[in-house]
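target protein:
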Amino acid sequence: MKRLLTTTAATLTMIGASPAWAQAGTQELMAMDVSQLRAEIQQRYDAALARTVDPAIVNTNDTRFNWANEAKVQCGIAIGFLKSSTKDETSISNCVMAAGLMDQVRTPAPPPPPTRPALPEVCSQKIPGIVFFEFDSADLPADARNTVEFVSTNAGPCGWAAFDVVGHADRAGTDAYNVGLSERRAQVVASLMTSLGIPQSAIATSARGEANPRVPTEDGVRNPQNRRVEIGVR
C-alpha cells in the first residue's frame, strides 16, 4: 500500500513552528521532574507503538499512521535523552505534537483534475477555409486542396463535427444563374472534402448566389473576393 509522506522530521525541529496547544503541552512537561516526564513520554510512546501495529490504522490511507510512526520515533528519542536525565526540548516538543496528531484523520486532498491542453488558435475560427474561384467557373482552383486539407487536419483537434459549405458568386450575371453557379462551386468543394476524409454526412451545402458579397459592389461588377466557397464549422 502506498504510504503518505511524513512531514515531521524536518518541520518539527523548531518549537516555535508547533501549534499553541503543542507548545503549551511541551512547557507543561518540561516543568515536570525527570521521573514524571519519563512516564508521560513513555505513555505517548506506547500509544504510538500500538497504533503503528493496529491494522485499522496501518491499512488506512490517511495521516494517522504517519503521525503515530513519527510520535514513536520522537518520543523514543526523548526517552533516550531522559536515560541520562536530560530534558531534550526539541524531541519532547516533537513527541507532544506527533502524539497529538496521530488520532486525527486527515485524508489527503484528491489530485486536481487534469488540465485540458489549450486548443490551437485556429479552433476559434467559424470559417476556417475559403476557396476562391475564377470568373464564371466552378472548377477547383489549384490552391483548393491546401485549403481543404487545412480544415480536414484541424477537424479532430478542434472538435469540428459539422461543416456548412456555402457557395457564392459575384454580381456579374443574373440572380438565377449565380445561384446555380454558387451551388456547383459548393458541391465541388464538398466532394473534395469527402475525398480528404471528412464524412459526407457531416457536410451541408447551400448556395447564396450574389446575395451575400464579401465585398459589396454595384450590380454587374466582377470581383474575385465574391466568387468563393466558405467552409464554416459548428
Notes: Confidence is low (pLDDT under 50) at residues 1-16. The helical segments are 8-11, 20-30, 34-52, 55-58, 64-82, 89-101, 144-158, 175-195. The chain has eight helices and four strands.
